[in-house]
């Protein structure tokens, strides 16, 4: 669009007013500093919530690595356990777990807003949707612990 | 440039499903597999079951796409990189797709 417009009319117009452009689609946008999310606590919380995706991705990848390690045999798995037990890794995984928990909590807390359930004319109240999700979390956690630790 | 029919709803559904599964299962899995890991024979025996493998595949795939979708928007908005639209989308979804194939291979050939 821009090129066509300028090519058709641009030359004559440009001599009169070099800065004039026939069609210039540009949104009005305020310039924000790149660290805009440090201004308010709520903004920071939002960014931390968005950053939980890194913990989710890391966990998925390390679980895959753990599968590979398992398929390599007992010796490799022992070395992997040594890696898990080292202090820096323990601390890092503590941080990862904290991010994962933050993801779970923010995810479930948003559920009543994302999920509007109706049974006939009765709308399932938010508190019930919320507690349903937390109950499911408890059940899922119990299932995992039972499956692995039994 | 962009396709007429948006692929956005598909990726949003993957993001949403992954967010739910990750919220439900990942904290418990981290606790049990990294902070109190079982012994080798125990764990191999438990993973070597087609239902467990299928569940792990679903969980890993959707978690990866959850990362891809959410991180894509973090880069756009948080770091103001929306001018790199195509590149970031390719890296995020392409990475998630490649890792999903790898997860499928690892689980298919397990142990």
Strand-helix topology:
The complex is a heterodimer of chains A (150) and B (111).
Chain A: H1 2-16, H2 41-72, H3 74-85, H4 87-114, E1 118-119, E2 122-123, H5 126-149
Antiparallel strand pairs in A: 1-2
Helix pairs in contact in A: 2-3, 2-4, 4-5
Chain B: H1 8-35, H2 40-47, H3 50-78, H4 85-108
Number of strands of chain B: 0
Chain pair with largest interface: A-B, 46 and 51 residues
**What is the average of the pLDDT values of chain B?**
90
The CATH superfamily of the largest domain in chain A appears as Fumarate reductase/succinate dehydrogenase, transmembrane subunit
What is the overall number of helices of chain A? Answer: 5
- Total of domains of chain A: 2
| Strand/helix succession of chain A | HHHHEEH
How does the overall form of chain A come out from the CA principal axes? flat
Write the H/E string of chain B, N to C.
HHHH
Q: Share of helix among residues of chain A?
A: over 70%
What's the count of strands of chain A? 2
Runs of chain B with pLDDT <50, length 5+? none
Computed Rg of chain A:
27 Å
The main pleated sheet of chain B reads as: none
Share of residues in strands of chain B: under 5%
Features:
heterodimer, A: 150 residues, mainly alpha, 3 helical TM bundles of succinate and fumarate reductases, 2 domains, two-stranded antiparallel sheet, 5 helices, 2 strands, flat, B: mainly alpha, 4 helices
């Amino acid at each position: 669009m821009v090129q066509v417009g300028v090519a058709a009319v641009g030359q004559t117009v440009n001599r009169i007013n070099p800065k004039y452009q026939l069609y210039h689609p540009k949104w009005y946008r305020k310039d924000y500093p790149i660290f805009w999310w440090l201004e308010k606590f709520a903004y920071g919380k939002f960014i931390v919530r968005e950053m939980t995706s890194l913990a989710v991705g890391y966990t998925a990848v390390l679980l895959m690595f753990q599968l590979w390690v398992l398929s390599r045999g007992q010796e490799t798995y022992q070395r992997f356990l040594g890696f898990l037990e080292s202090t820096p890794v323990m601390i890092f995984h503590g941080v990862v777990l904290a991010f994962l928990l933050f993801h779970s909590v923010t995810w479930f807390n948003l559920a009543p807003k994302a999920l509007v359930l109706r049974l006939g004319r009765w709308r399932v109240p938010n508190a019930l949707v919320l507690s349903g999700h937390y109950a499911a979390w408890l059940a899922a956690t119990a299932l995992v612990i039972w499956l692995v630790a039994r | 440039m962009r396709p007429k029919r948006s692929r956005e709803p598909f990726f949003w559904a993957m993001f949403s499903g992954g967010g739910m599964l990750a919220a439900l299962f990942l904290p418990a899995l981290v606790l049990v597999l990294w902070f109190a890991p079982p012994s080798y024979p125990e764990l191999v025996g438990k993973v070597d079951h087609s239902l467990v493998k299928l569940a792990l595949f679903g969980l890993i795939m959707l978690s990866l796409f959850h990362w891809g979708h959410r991180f894509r928007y973090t880069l756009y908005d948080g770091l103001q990189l929306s001018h790199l639209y195509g590149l970031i989308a390719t890296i995020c979804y392409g990475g998630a797709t490649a890792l999903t194939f790898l997860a499928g291979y690892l689980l298919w050939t397990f142990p």
